[in-house]
Predict the 3D structure of the following.
Amino acid sequence: MNSAYIWIIFPSLVAVILLLLQKRETLVAILATGTTAVLAGLAAWLPVQEQIIFWRWVFPFSDTFIIFGRQIVLSAADRPSLIVIYLTAALWFGAAPLARPNRLFVPLGLGMVTLLTAAIAVEPFLFAGVLIEIAVLVSIPFLSPPGSRAGRGVLRYLSFQTIGMPFILISGFMFTGFEVGPGNQEFVAIATALLAIGFALLLAVFPFHTWIPMLAEDSHPYPTAFVFLLLPVAVSIFGLGFLDSYVWFKSNPSTALLLQLAGVVMVVTAGIWAAVERHITRLMGFAIILDIGFSLIAIGLAIGGNSEIYRVLFYALLLPRGLSLGVWALALSGLIGRIEVLDLENIRGLGRRYPVISISMILSIFCIAGLPLLAGFPLKLGVIEGLSATVPQISLWVIMGSLGLIAGGIRMLISMVSDADETRDESPESRTLRAFLVIGLAILFTLGILPNFFIQLIINLLAAFGSVVP
Amino acid sequence: MILNYLVLPSVILAFITATVLLISWDWRISIFSLGLQYLCVFVLISLSWPMETAAVKVVAGWMSGAVLGLASLNLPQENIKGKPVLISDVAFRLLAAILAGLFAFTGGARLVIWLPEIDVQAAYGATILISLGLLHLGLTTHPFRVVLGLLTVLSGFEILYAAVESSILITGLLAIVTLGLAIVGAYMLTAPTLEEAS
């Protein structure tokens, strides 16, 4: 028995089988949800030891899988990442029949999940860049489904991610050369610049962020949000692994500052654009850019000083992001076919016609922006406090960025509650959709009202696998 | 080795093929240029790798060309041809290609200082393909052309990377990426004509 069999090879096979069964959409969604939920459960409860005892049988268990002389290692430290990734996938696939994305979404989405897991596990880790690129290629058919022309957003997404891979590979090679010591400062600066450009392309850091709002506008919101959530998570975890591997690079104060500045730039630019954006799906794109910015700041703080606290915050930020994006994307999916263009003009009166969908979208925006009482607030407050302690001059800008997103949400709210020019006779929201949205919103509120319980849960999870010291 | 005599012609041919890819509006000429380009990539990579390993690149490249060619062949011609050729457009692209080539010439020399493992002629070939590929990407929004641009950039990078990394796993993965790009390109070309799945 091997961890790679469980979390990489088995789900890959399931993805292939689901691809063959794609016409039975509900069955495919159930199978994918079951598989990913079981894999998340196994990541949480399967003991980390050399033998697995099942009733009377004893199976030898290894966390290392060797392929062509390279290793795929899913150790105890990777378990929190596995839980996050597979739980996210389970939630997403579970609600897929409601959102009605293209039927390639679930099988190829599962394929993407396994490739991103392999990217986190592969050693030397710089090969992860190639696996991330293959995951991106796998995602194209569900972002640009059969019967539609590939939009500019899809093409830009493909281009930026493909160009990002060589930067990661070549900088990874250069960093491996510095392993014995940083050596020539000019080479270190070049390698750092290449690495920064590579990650900026993969994580949509300004000025390489344009594919996110374009893709959000072009493609179905549900699979798009899935990519927006999963890809940055995998790239960020890969980035954390990169930093952990090179202590001299990690301990350089400029590295932490660079990450924090990149994060702040993302938050500020996303906030400004969100404040003036008129298209709702593009607004979702800017919201995710803002949230990735917060994650980058948390990583910068984690390597700069109080490593444990901000590492916890980095992981904790993923849950509200996933929930908010899920609720938002599901709500937007509920509007497909009902409203032709999802802009401020066309959503006038939406609050009366579809109250749950409207409230879900508004609260998701506010949660990502970090409004009090919602799940994002305590975590974003923690990040802003940490930033104020290290670089107080720029922490105000982060608040301004969040306010920008809130302003975008308020503009949307005003449009939703204003009177529509014409009365439309439309079918109401489905009960199942309402139930899913209400459950999502309830969790967002619960996490916001009980932040200590939530953060303690994350700390316990990370501590259980030795990722942080409790 | 006989291939050593082909290195400089390969660098020049790489520039010509990448320029043809940039200018040509006929998919047949583009696919033929792509095939020739991968032959140049093979010669330049064989400076760092044994020929049998370097052959992986040309095989993957030609298969990519075949995939894109077959997809284009099965499409209505107006879907693939794009807009009609304008002399001013060709002149602009040619000038831009020459400028990118000059940039690559200076960049290649600098690259050898940063990555001493790479042969100077291979460095020129790599920078030519990367810069012309990026230029191509900047000038188009057509899926077929975007994939050609990406394959060109990736070819240039593979020449560079071959000098520093010879792992079988990475060779295989990069071949998968090359083929995957072509398959995605073929999919994007044919997707509008396919039946909607949901």
